[in-house]
Amino acid sequence: MKKMLMATTAAALVATGAFADGHAKEVKLGIIFGFTGPIESLTGPMASGAEMAVNEVSESGMLMDGAKVTAMRVDSGCIDNGLAVSNAERLIADGVSGIVGADCSGVTGAVLQNVAIPNGMVMISPSATSPGLTTMEDNGLFFRTSPSDAREGEVMAEILQERGVKSIALTYTNNDYGKGLADAIESSFKALGGEVTIVAAHEDGKADYSAEVGALASAGGDILVVAGYLDQGGAGIIKAALDAGAWEQFGLPGGMIGDNLPETIGPDLDGSYGQIAGSEGEGIEAFSKMAEAGGFDGTSPYTPESYDAAALLLLAMQASGSMDPAVYKEKILDVANAPGEKIYPGELGKALELIKAGTDVDYVGASAVELIGPGESAGSYRMIEVKDGKNETVGFK
After folding, report:
1. DSSP letter at 195?
2. Burial readout 123-153 (b: 16 or more C-beta within 10 A, e: otherwise)
3. What φ, ψ does residue 205 adopt, rounded to 5°?
4. pTM of this prediction?
5. Strand (E) positions, 236-380?
6. What CA–CA distance (Å, rounded) separates 197 from 306?
7. What is the spatial order of strands in the sheet that 167-173 belongs to?
8. Residue pair 97/5 in contact by the 8 Å Cβ criterion
9. What is the per-residue pLDDT across 55-112, written as a single tens digit (0 to 9) for each?
């Protein structure tokens, strides 16, 4: 309680300009991702992306007339609500002014309801895509730089149709993310005239998926769409389907896209395809070069969106003149969208200067940010096909 009071007091001082020149100011940002669990192969680059934005702002010296920014990592477990809530509470106790995350949809909803809302804390998730988060009551505290799975379902249905697929079997990881995505794929594919032979849940963490694959194979379908996690049950389903000779080609939504899946499955995954949130153009090109220089892969799934989530939090603080979430939350949509001077990765110091001078900015960032509705990405997608053991980008939607 004492730490929370100190953080609130510090925020109030910043908001009123009560910090005298020369006093060290520190802004703490929490990063809550599943460093363990079913997407752990993705979260290292994601955190590095967020921390790159943090360091860029801190080194510019332009935030709040010289505030330093510190990033604090904690583990969400991706599918462990208890762990995620406990660690988010620790971030609050440590005095963070904003949270990048969470990552997976279920833990994101749990942290939002049990930690962020009761403490008035802003969260921007780069990767929680469940449509259920669109309508969740959030007191204006929750945003995301990734699009909703309602949109991904439409995109995947279009891709399947374009490839001549008439029928699909569909399996999903049994949680908020998997169910929401499966519903979106099923309804969108049917709307385009496709047949869905079966929709079946699978549990993560099992050693044997032969029973699940048996039921899926009995239903049939031109292709098996796996709305799961690449480091857990999704990979297990694909291995079992290949072992059984049930399918040779798989549909891969966002949670299945990552370098680890073709490495795990091997050459038999070649020819499978899917999509993940992603964009083309100046922003991702600039960010990819920055990330390469920083020693991580800027094109790794949800890594550009992580950089953008951290950047938006800090730009909104500058625009409001406050690191109090109750104040700066009102500026997030303003700095994210037109009108204003377009801001790309590597230009956060410039953006802070423009904002200080009273000039509007339109943050484009690494993922071509445009926030709509209740503060989520309008969404563009990178189409992926596995070729020679690697995920290759074959187009954009």
Report:
1. E
2. bbbbbbbbbbbbeeebeebbbbbbbbbbbbb
3. 85, 10
4. 0.93
5. 250-252, 273-277, 341-343, 361-363, 371-372, 376-377
6. 36
7. 195-202, 167-173, 223-227, 250-252, 273-277, 381-387, 390-396
8. no
9. 999 999 999 989 999 999 999 999 999 999 999 999 999 999 999 999 999 999 999 9
